[in-house]
Amino acid sequence: MSTTTANRAPAAAAPFDVAARRAEFPALHQQVHGKPLVYLDSAATTQKPRAVIDAISRFYERDNANVHRGVHALSERATKAFEGARATVARFLNADPREVVFVRGATEAINLVAQSFGRPRLQAGDEVVVTTLEHHSNIVPWQLLAAATGARVVPAPIDDAGDLELAALERLLGPKVKLLAVTQVSNALGTVTPLEAVIALARARGIPVLVDGAQGAPHLGVDVKALGADFYAFSGHKLYGPTGIGVLWARREHLEAMPPWQGGGDMIRSVSFEKTTFNEVPYKFEAGTPDIAGAVGLAAALDYVAAIGLPAIAAHEAGLLREAEAALLAIPGVRLVGTPRQRAGVLSFLVGDIHPHDLATIVDRQGVAIRAGHHCAQPIMQRFKLAATARASFALYSTPADVEALVRALHAAIKLFS
Amino acid sequence: MSELTDLYQEVILDHGKKPRNFGPLEGATASAEGLNPLCGDHLILQVKVADGTVLEARFTGTGCAISRASASVMTGLVKGKTAAEVEAMFQVFHALVTGGPGAHPDLEALGKLAVFGGVHEFPTRVKCASLAWHTLRSALQGTPITSTE
Q: Please, what is the end-to-end C-alpha distance for chain B in angstroms?
């Protein structure tokens, strides 16, 4: 364990003490437009606990050096912190650290897989199946790949509740399909996908599966050994960590077989103009100086979450989601978009015929931060024949008081537009 | 709330709910499509121009109250105006929504546009208010698709 990630995380408290946890997030304690901030945009990015902010500061104040090359003390400490962070990520995923590739975020992880795994394998006429629930970051990289190879991106449908249509997905998984890309949780609707069933369908046909865990990891976590997927991507900043750092987990045999996707320092063993040999995995995929402080911050975030316990966080958030759902539906004219069998993190809704963008502006002036728009998931909007929704999203620090403030702010919007 | 009521003035709420000149334009001589990728607003603007003068302008599409009201007010104001006059009005409007009423010395020139005087307090909404104008300029210049991004 590196010194920089060994933060004094909060002692696990039962029952979950949301007031104590909130106190650990400096950004939550401020006023906006003269009102206390009510932050309900955690699906876009979470706020950061003091432990994460301090870990990053400490790294820069004490351990900052480049990794994997210097023989001096600081370089040794920085390398230890960076590789310690990789080990922390591996524990979070239940993975081998050699299967953990540091990237900028889930988007870069998916692009890496598309270019390094997909590109050499795909030929004209092949298919990549993606679900209609995907964020643009799990659609566009496959479209780029398709454009380069002559393959096709095939969307798997969802029903009116916002759940995957498993029977239709199964029919789509034909012999031309070379990869299935599926999210763990929809960022626009909150749908938790039945990953076990989805992955079983794909594996029975020998189709590799990429899981986008950007929204799932913060609420559900993951055990990649139990999951049975081939790739899992997540972002640090949606999990209480800093922006600019994320993780690609991939099965070792894939990483060994995949060519590097970027060249540079750190990813090589030796370079000459006659022959360059690449470093071993995962370094083969980490060209250039990595985001060392970002990795340290991510590890601090994972330690923080582990100390509280993801099950406790999930239970708190699930209870709050139920409360929020009931409170929103009690407002005349409110309609939920997406009523999936299982939900995590997110409520998407409409209020009468008030445009979500107007709604977000009005509630912002009450201090309430929500998201309005297509949530980088335009195929979902097209599926529901909508241009936009309003979205409230929750994290471990969200409270019933946040929900009450949202409800009050929505009433103010209705009044203004009546 | 005062900034909010500056933004959502009665006139804006009214035009947002019941936009004027809304619907397709028969015999349009030019059209353009406006997109705001940030919020998914989508506007199709059609104009009938003869001898350099806008005879009629209508719009369809989806958008927030601000963008609909802006399109509604604008399509009324530009009737009978030359392209040069439309451009001058746009400059006044642009100064107003980015800098506020103080940014334009000639309040008379604002006319009906003065209702958008509260927009400048909401930097994220300037694009909503401007979308119709950018789209109109594209139509008059013969550029079929315009985007606020």
A: 29
pLDDT of residue A9: 47
For residue A382, give the chain B residue with the closest CA: B40
A286 is written with which tokens? 């980490």
Residues A252 and A317 in one domain: no
pLDDT bucket at A14, cuts 50 / 70 / 90: low
Q: Which of A273, A306, A339 is the last residue in one of the domains? A: A306
Chain B interface disruption, residue of A140, A337, A361, most B CBs within 10 A: A361
Q: Are A143 and A242 members of one domain?
A: yes
Residue that wins the pLDDT comparison between A11 and A243: A243
CB-based contact A374 B40, cutoff 8 Å: yes
CB contact under 8 A, B5 and A387: no
Contacts of B40 in chain A (CB under 8 A): 373-374, 378, 381, 387-388
Tens digits of per-residue pLDDT, A240-270?
999 999 999 999 999 999 999 999 888 888 9
Average pLDDT of chain A is 95
CA-nearest of B39, B112, B109, B38 to B75 is B112
Does position B146 have pLDDT exceeding 80, yes or no? no
Domain of A192 in residue numbering reads as 55-306
Which amino acid is residue A336, in one-letter code?
Answer: L
Sign of CA dihedral A161, A167, A172, A173: positive
